[in-house]
């Protein structure tokens, strides 16, 4: 068809005429010239077509997108199409779907990170079996694995246990092993025995104090760095730091000796732990506090030193 509009005279394929006509914004009665569908099969919805038919219908648009991607985005057609899709979703207020798609695009997936799941389990005081029940229910109802399975949480938990992070004391501490890996030790080793002592066996997971302290500080690394950033102390990354620690011993259940001074009570569980109260940094003559525990009496900030069943 030759375009009948003045000063145009362009020749266009019959099927593409209405598309060409839409570029003439100044014409009020352009409907007179638009292409009329004269019956035949009704046009099927794009998403209900076969893949081949979808390719056929979108070939012109695909060519344009390819040209745009090569010119503007270094040939990344996927990024252009994904961004168009995200914009279309957000324009229709479908933000949840858009967020999930964005997470998949960034390689995060729509599930939670194992460390986040572990934090949820600890903060909501869920036992392993309770968490596993919730994990299974959510997976069955939504059809997606939003929470991570228990084995993934256990792997994430290892990073929080003493003996995971290698370290070196400078200068080396006297009478302390340079080995940073800590296994299971006897719960009573090193404790002075009382006079009225009776034989007691212990099953314990006991950590060396230095390894436990390093692990606690490594766990708090982000909070410490954030505290330094807020006070503009980035120049003092090498310290020296002062770390104030509160020690505590918690008898789990009816334990007559809670303070670790008397004899270990048979068939009772005891936990020795410590809490990092605050961290300060020496800058010149004065000391600046960069971390302070807001809930020092909460068991959520207790760092384990020895978990013992006597």
UniProtKB/TrEMBL annotation:
<dbReference type="InterPro" id="IPR024627">
    <property type="entry name" value="RAG1"/>
</dbReference>
<dbReference type="InterPro" id="IPR058554">
    <property type="entry name" value="RAG1_RNase_H"/>
</dbReference>
<keyword id="KW-0156">Chromatin regulator</keyword>
<dbReference type="Pfam" id="PF26025">
    <property type="entry name" value="RAG1_pre-RNase_H"/>
</dbReference>
<keyword id="KW-0863">Zinc-finger</keyword>
<comment type="similarity">
    <text>Belongs to the RAG1 family.</text>
</comment>
<keyword id="KW-0255">Endonuclease</keyword>
<keyword id="KW-0238">DNA-binding</keyword>
<keyword id="KW-0479">Metal-binding</keyword>
<protein>
    <recommendedName>
        <fullName>V(D)J recombination-activating protein 1</fullName>
        <ecNumber>2.3.2.27</ecNumber>
        <ecNumber>3.1.-.-</ecNumber>
    </recommendedName>
</protein>
<keyword id="KW-0808">Transferase</keyword>
<dbReference type="InterPro" id="IPR058553">
    <property type="entry name" value="RAG1_pre-RNase_H"/>
</dbReference>
<dbReference type="GO" id="GO:0008270">
    <property type="term" value="F:zinc ion binding"/>
</dbReference>
<feature type="domain" description="RAG1-type">
    <location>
        <begin position="1"/>
        <end position="28"/>
    </location>
</feature>
<keyword id="KW-0833">Ubl conjugation pathway</keyword>
<comment type="function">
    <text>Catalytic component of the RAG complex, a multiprotein complex that mediates the DNA cleavage phase during V(D)J recombination. V(D)J recombination assembles a diverse repertoire of immunoglobulin and T-cell receptor genes in developing B and T-lymphocytes through rearrangement of different V (variable), in some cases D (diversity), and J (joining) gene segments. In the RAG complex, RAG1 mediates the DNA-binding to the conserved recombination signal sequences (RSS) and catalyzes the DNA cleavage activities by introducing a double-strand break between the RSS and the adjacent coding segment.</text>
</comment>
<dbReference type="Pfam" id="PF12940">
    <property type="entry name" value="RAG1"/>
</dbReference>
<dbReference type="InterPro" id="IPR019485">
    <property type="entry name" value="RAG1_Znf"/>
</dbReference>
<comment type="subunit">
    <text>Homodimer.</text>
</comment>
<dbReference type="InterPro" id="IPR058552">
    <property type="entry name" value="RAG1_DNA-bd"/>
</dbReference>
<keyword id="KW-0862">Zinc</keyword>
<dbReference type="Pfam" id="PF26024">
    <property type="entry name" value="RAG1_DNA-bd"/>
</dbReference>
<dbReference type="GO" id="GO:1905347">
    <property type="term" value="C:endodeoxyribonuclease complex"/>
</dbReference>
<keyword id="KW-0539">Nucleus</keyword>
<keyword id="KW-0511">Multifunctional enzyme</keyword>
<feature type="DNA-binding region" description="NBD">
    <location>
        <begin position="39"/>
        <end position="106"/>
    </location>
</feature>
<dbReference type="GO" id="GO:0005634">
    <property type="term" value="C:nucleus"/>
</dbReference>
<dbReference type="GO" id="GO:0097519">
    <property type="term" value="C:DNA recombinase complex"/>
</dbReference>
<keyword id="KW-0233">DNA recombination</keyword>
<feature type="domain" description="NBD">
    <location>
        <begin position="39"/>
        <end position="106"/>
    </location>
</feature>
<dbReference type="Pfam" id="PF26100">
    <property type="entry name" value="RAG1_RNase_H"/>
</dbReference>
<dbReference type="InterPro" id="IPR036236">
    <property type="entry name" value="Znf_C2H2_sf"/>
</dbReference>
<keyword id="KW-0378">Hydrolase</keyword>
<dbReference type="GO" id="GO:0002250">
    <property type="term" value="P:adaptive immune response"/>
</dbReference>
<dbReference type="Pfam" id="PF10426">
    <property type="entry name" value="zf-RAG1"/>
</dbReference>
<dbReference type="GO" id="GO:0030183">
    <property type="term" value="P:B cell differentiation"/>
</dbReference>
<dbReference type="GO" id="GO:0033077">
    <property type="term" value="P:T cell differentiation in thymus"/>
</dbReference>
<dbReference type="GO" id="GO:1990238">
    <property type="term" value="F:double-stranded DNA endonuclease activity"/>
</dbReference>
<dbReference type="GO" id="GO:0043565">
    <property type="term" value="F:sequence-specific DNA binding"/>
</dbReference>
<keyword id="KW-0540">Nuclease</keyword>
<dbReference type="GO" id="GO:0006325">
    <property type="term" value="P:chromatin organization"/>
</dbReference>
<dbReference type="GO" id="GO:0033151">
    <property type="term" value="P:V(D)J recombination"/>
</dbReference>
């Amino acid at each position: 068809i030759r375009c009948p509009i003045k000063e145009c005279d362009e020749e266009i394929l019959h099927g593409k005429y209405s598309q060409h006509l839409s570029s003439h914004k100044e014409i009020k009665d352009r409907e007179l010239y638009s292409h009329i569908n004269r019956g035949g099969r009704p046009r099927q919805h794009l998403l209900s077509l076969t893949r081949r038919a979808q390719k056929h219908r979108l070939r012109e648009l695909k060519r344009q997108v390819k040209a745009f991607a090569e010119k503007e985005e270094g040939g990344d057609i996927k990024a252009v199409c994904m961004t168009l899709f995200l914009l279309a979703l957000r324009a229709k207020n479908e933000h949840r779907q858009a967020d999930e798609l964005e997470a998949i695009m960034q390689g995060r997936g729509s599930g939670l990170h194992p460390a986040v799941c572990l934090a949820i389990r600890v903060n909501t005081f869920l036992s392993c079996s309770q968490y596993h029940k919730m994990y299974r229910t959510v997976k069955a109802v939504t059809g997606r694995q939003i929470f991570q399975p228990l084995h993934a949480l256990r792997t994430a938990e290892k990073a929080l246990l003493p003996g995971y992070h290698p370290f070196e004391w400078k200068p080396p501490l006297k009478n302390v092993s340079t080995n940073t890996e800590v296994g299971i030790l006897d719960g009573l080793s090193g404790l002075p025995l009382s006079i009225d002592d009776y034989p007691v066996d212990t099953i314990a997971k006991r950590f060396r104090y230095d390894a436990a302290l390093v692990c606690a500080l490594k766990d708090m690394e982000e909070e410490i760095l954030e505290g330094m950033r807020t006070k503009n102390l980035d120049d003092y990354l090498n310290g020296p730091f002062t770390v104030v620690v509160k020690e505590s011993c918690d008898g789990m259940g009816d334990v007559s000796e809670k303070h670790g001074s008397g004899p270990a009570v048979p068939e009772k569980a005891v936990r020795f732990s410590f809490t990092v109260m605050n961290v300060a940094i020496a800058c010149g003559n004065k000391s600046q506090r960069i971390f302070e525990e807001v809930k020092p009496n909460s068991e959520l900030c207790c760092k384990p030193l020895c978990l013992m069943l006597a």
